[in-house]
Amino acid sequence: MLFAGIFEMEKSILNRLLQTPSIAPSFSDPQWDLCLRQAQAANLLGRLHFLLQQHDNLQYLPQRALNHLAAAVLRSNKQHQDIRAEAKRLSSYLTEHGLEITFLKGAAYVLTGIASQGRICSDIDILVNKSQLNQVEQRLEDVGWAPEAISDYDKKYYRQWMHEIPPMIHLGRQTILDVHHNIVPLTAEKLPNAHQLLESRCATDDQQAHYVLSPMDMILHSAVHLFSEGELDKGLRDLTDLDLLFKHYFDDPSLDHCRSEQLFARAQQLNIETSLYYALRYCHQVLKTELPTQCLMQSPNNPIKLLILDYCYQHTLVPYHSSCQGVNFELSCFILYLRSHIKKMPLRLLLPHLSIKWWQRAKKLFVVT
Q: What is the DSSP string of 227-256?
């Protein structure tokens, strides 16, 4: 059976439009104004343009709203052009030194054309074999990349516990690069085998210009990233990524059953089946994503935990805009923030870590004051 219970959506006009694009003709000018403000807060202006265009609804927007969406598309297209150029430089330079890289998330969507519609990226993410990590970092520094300035404690935190090294920034182009050697922190309760991800990676074209995760692994990485995250200011955007990834993966109804089985088997192999379940559940409930029935029959073992998460994601998978925020929003954010840290680190490491981070913030506040 489908998920039990009624999922009441947070009061977000953007969420309503994402769920049911056919309501666009009924919007008034003030509603379009609020919708675009929410979309801007959610980094979804460009994607909203493509959604409205797909359903032939752009004609119902006021001219000023159309201008905003057109500008967002231009910005997205320019950023995609820059990402492709940066990816070409990274791939050619590192591969000529015998180093393999695999592009993740936003960069992978742009390079493959999957889930790239109107997508805005804050950085470029790559995955490398941990045994080559030091070489990759050294080669990047040789061509103008440098670690961002962070505290000594944060450097240790990244190197000892995290699934990536400190972010790097190109000194000339100011591009931010995240170099990963896994997709979750090394202290996480369930750690995927990064070698399995790299073994299944795919080339983006016949010339093997770039490598990305397989379509199944792209879904699973997006799911584990979103549902282990403690700060969901980009959560709604990331959920729309999953919506598009699912639609691409289940593009042939005759193969739905086979692909569902393969997806769940792969998630189990990588120890992230719970994240996949949440991705399916909240895509279906928040965005009304059409999914194979067998995907919606899976159920976690703890119904009380699920009720709490339903409450939290109901109030946080919305634009981070003042019109969507209130007591429920703040409480949900706090719960998910704690949950993410507990999932990432055992208490013996978490409590000292949070204490140190709190002290660092307190000192900054004291200095500013």
A: TT-S--TTHHHHHHHHHHHHHHHT--GGGH
pTM of the model: 0.90
**Bridge-based pairing state of the strands 145-147 and 124-128:** unpaired
**Domains detected in the chain:** 13-368 (3.30.460.40)
Kindly indicate the confidence band of residue 207, based on its pLDDT and cuts at 50, 70 and 90: low
Distance of CA 288 to the CA centre of its chain: 18
Contacts of 25 (CB under 8 A, 6+ apart): 57, 60
The pLDDT of residue 6 is: 36
pLDDT, average across residues 253-263:
88
CB 160 within 8 A of CB 154: no
Tokens coding 286: 């928040």
Amino acid at 91: S
The three-state (H, E, C) secondary structure of 305-351, written as one string? HHHHHHHHHHHHCCCCCHHHCCHHHHHHHHHHHHHHHHHHCCHHHHH
Kindly report, residue by residue over 22-60, the tens digit of the pLDDT: 999 999 999 999 999 999 999 999 999 999 999 999 999
CA 331/CA 339 separation, integer angstroms: 12
Binned at pLDDT 50, 70 and 90, residue 117 comes out as very high
- Residue 269: partners with Cβ closer than 8 Å, 6 or more residues away: 196
Q: Which of 292, 369, 360, 329 is closest to 154 using CA atoms?
A: 360
C-alpha count within 13 angstroms, C-beta hemisphere, residue 122: 8
How many Cβ atoms sit within 10 Å of the Cβ of residue 74?
11
Q: Which of 24, 29, 182, 53 is CA-nearest to residue 117? A: 53
